[in-house]
Amino acid sequence: MIHPTPAIVSQHSARRLPRWVLWTLGLLYILPGFIGRDPWRNADLAAFGVMRELAAQPGQWLHPQLLGESAQTIGWLPYWLGALAIHALPWLPAHQAAQMPFMALLALTLICTWYAAYYLARLPGAQPVVFAFGGQAHPVDYARALADAALLALLACLGLALLAHQSSVDAARLAFIALALAAFARSVQPGKNLAPTLGMWALAMFGLALSGAPGIALLLLLSGEWARWCWPKASSDMMATEGAASHAQASKALAMRGSMAALALAAAALAYAIGWPGGWLDGHAVLAHWQLGASWESLARLLLWFTWPCALLAAWTLWKWRRQWRSPHLLLPAACLLALLLATLLHRGSDRILLLALPPLAVLAAFALPTLTRSVAALIDWLAILLFSVSALLIWIIWVAMVTGVPAEPAANVAKLLPNFVPRFQAHGFVPALLLTLAWLAVIAWRTGRHQPALWKSLVLSASGITLCWALLLTLWLPALNHGMSLAPISQRVAAHTPAQQCVLVHGLAHEQIAALQYHGGLRVQRITGGPADATCSRLVVSSEGFATLSQRLDVRHWHLLREEPRLRENRDVWLVFERRLGATAPQH
């Protein structure tokens, strides 16, 4: 039995968003967070340190490392991209050069999400109701409008902003997930050439495998096969031809499925042959984690804010289109979403794995828009206006307090959180922030005015609002964020107490801390070996956590504490800087 589609869309509502608006919004979302930002702590800075070392020693392509310690646990491809960019763009600061490939990967994510929604919206089961006297949306115009909405929905996701702008494995995996989704969507289009689809799929599968996620690649393949198994009648209806034409279509579809499976298995086999980054999951640890009620509460909170507002719209899509659940335009993104949510559970609720679920979630969210009533659309608009206007106002108030000291309470809070930070007025941050704020007011005025209906109008304010707040943070607050989120200040203070041409021994420091000493401090860093090479270093830097095991690596009587350097505040991360006592030498093997 064929159920009527819930989408009722006129040709007037299927207007596509002007291309200059879409491109401008995309650029305003991508550029802040890359331009002028230092590598921030943890994954961003740790990956950058490995990229610099790989660029200096390109012979270690299959063994990226930092000070001799392997960095294979998150895959090779992000390191390769960053190292190649550093080598190819020597006139740029190294961290800016390393960020260039990841800007392109974020752009690829947005483009592939648009095309995935476009291909799925072209399918017969996704089309709106045909009006008795005509005037329904043309299939191509309808598909473009829904693709615009999917892109806006992805930009509106709160969880996308920070992780997608880092020079780390997450941006690479996200782009390849979006590419795989677009390849899946293209593969169910009747009459499409096989070669481009298989090329997209191969790039996605090998990209995921070399980014340390071959298991996720296999999960995507299995989810796609499950989706195809669920719609046998729907897929045959799509190819409703008889005789030789029907047989050719079936043979082509079978060849497509076999080729996609072979490529996914080949990518996983390649990753396994050269090391399988990330290793195997600890099943006992996963089960123990989810036996705690607090773990489920944490996951619920993460899902609530990380996927806002796409999760609610996607749930609405699944409800309103429930009678068409066997249609490919619902099954494919839903199957991919379920696979990535399963991966999130297997990784104990990691937000970095949940990030990968945003492209299929945005595609599902777009199909909710043709079924929304005017009151629901208005509610979404007013929530967006309230949330992002208040957020932007707070960002401006705190910035004014930082620069002028008024209001006094926010200024005091910033001074407490960021000791030694000296705020300064910077016109190159203020002018873009002011223009973007005026543009936000213009968008509000346009949206609340009387205009022709459009499918994507309900998401314009949400996407523009998150773009505004992200851009304000990365223009007005950028100096403060660099001071608080990077390790440049503490590295430069350590370098100021290190004699020129002297190396520094380290103990208990993580990769990002070592990378900061090398890049921001300009120091020659080496780990304790217990051999003659240690004698050339007159300084020793130890983390507060690593001090307990320091005596196991060297004779602490040969060193005395020179300074305690807190990263920000005294009660937070502290580096202990030791000076070699006069006459003390490193022991021989």
From TrEMBL:
It comes from the Bacteria. This is 4-amino-4-deoxy-L-arabinose transferase and related glycosyltransferase of PMT family. The keyword Transmembrane applies. GO terms for molecular function: transferase activity. Keywords: Membrane, Transferase, Transmembrane, Transmembrane helix. The chain crosses the membrane at residues 20-36, 74-92, 104-122, 142-164, 171-188, 200-222, 260-279, 299-318, 330-347, 353-372, 379-405, 425-446, 458-478.
